[in-house]
Structures are given as structure tokens and as C-alpha cells.
Amino acid sequence: MSALRPNSRPTLANTDGFWQLTFDGRSAVLKQHPALFYVAWLLAKAPAAPVTALDLAGYVFRRFRSHQDLLRCARWLCRQQCDGDVAEVFRKKQRALEKILDGPGETEVEKIEAQRELIFLEHLLETYFIELIPPGEKTAERIASELLDLYASLAAALDAQGNPHPVIRAFALHLLVCVVMPSIRASRGAVGARYVYRSLESKV
User: What is the pTM of this model?
Assistant: First the structure.
């Protein structure tokens, strides 16, 4: 069980179009997987407090938004974040229009025009954006599913000779013990899922 030694905190980097894993003094190349972006962020930041699914999605997007692989394998996340930014711009406009309607110093013409724009914006927000931006629960389900799929894939990894890959399978165990299980525990009793990296030096 060398994967569970306290000094075995891994690193993940993707600078050349593939993931380079360094773990317990050894390295391996990992196949592209959307959950690797979540794991890379958690490993690098090791947040003191568990983060929500929506926050994790936002952090990952901001960290890797210019990375082509994120767009290729996690389009839903990119779409969610980009559309979320655009939707917020429209919500600010909506609030400004509501202020015009409620303001005592506005002319009747200005209020009629504001009402017309407000109806259009409300329709846009209630149809297009609400359909595209998944709620927190859906985001949590997506991230949890992808993390478990990543773990299953890594736990079954083979080397070039068709034997169990020692580095990748050890990392799979580390992922299970330090990310998956602590995140499940952190989510108990909380409103929505929470994600965290608990290194073996930490008190879980």
C-alpha cells in the first residue's frame, strides 16, 4: 500500500495536451478525462473547507478556461459558466429597468420603453438561460458521476504489457481515500454536495 504513505501527495499537470501524473516519486501519463480537471484543482489548492459543486465548477473553469482540453471534454461546464456570466449581465439590466419603472422621476415614455424591454428580458431569462444553466443539484450529480467514472477507469488501468499499472492504480486508491470518501463525508448533513481534498497528513 505505498499509495497511502503520508509523503505521497500527487501532482497533475496538462501543458502539452495530456495529463502528466507524478505520484510517490514516479510518473505516468493519464488518458484525458473531464474529472481530472476537478482533481487537479483540488490537489493544487487543497481547500481548507469543502467547496460546493457550483463553486468547484466555477473554480475549475476560471483556472482552465483557456485550455482546449476543457472545452473538448467538459463542454457542459464551459457552457454553464459562460452562459452564467451572460445571464448575470441581463439580470443587472433587469434590475436597472425595474428601478426605472419604480422611480418617481421617470417620464411615461421612459417607463413604457422600460416595460417593453423588461418583458423581453424576463422571457429570455425564464426560457433560454434557465434551461441551459443546471441547478446545483444537477451540477453535483454530474461531478460526482465523473469522479466515480474516473476512479473506476484508473483502478482498472493496465501498463503496456497488459499488467496492472502500479502508478495509476496506486493513484486511484489515493483518489478514493483522499477525494471521493472525504467528499462524501463532507456532504453529509450539508445542503448539496461538497468536494474536498484531504491529504493523508490532514485530519479527515
Answer: 0.71
